[in-house]
Amino acid sequence: MTEDLPARFRSGDVRALARAISLVERRDPAVRELEEAVLSGRAPSAGVAGFTGAPGTGKSTLVDAVVALLRRRDRSVAVLATDPNSPFSGGAILGDRIRMQRHALDTKVFIRSMGARGHLGGLSLATREAIRLLGAFGFDEVILETVGVGQSELEVAAVADTTVVVLTPNLGDSVQMIKAGILEIADVFAVNKADVEGYRRVVAELRTMLNMAPKGAWRPPIVPTVATKEEG
Ligand SMILES: Nc1nc2c(ncn2[C@@H]2O[C@H](COP(=O)(O)OP(=O)(O)O)[C@@H](O)[C@H]2O)c(=O)[nH]1
Ligand SMILES: [Mg+2]
Question: Is the CB of 56 inside a 6 Å radius of any atom of ligand 1?
Answer without folding.
Answer: yes
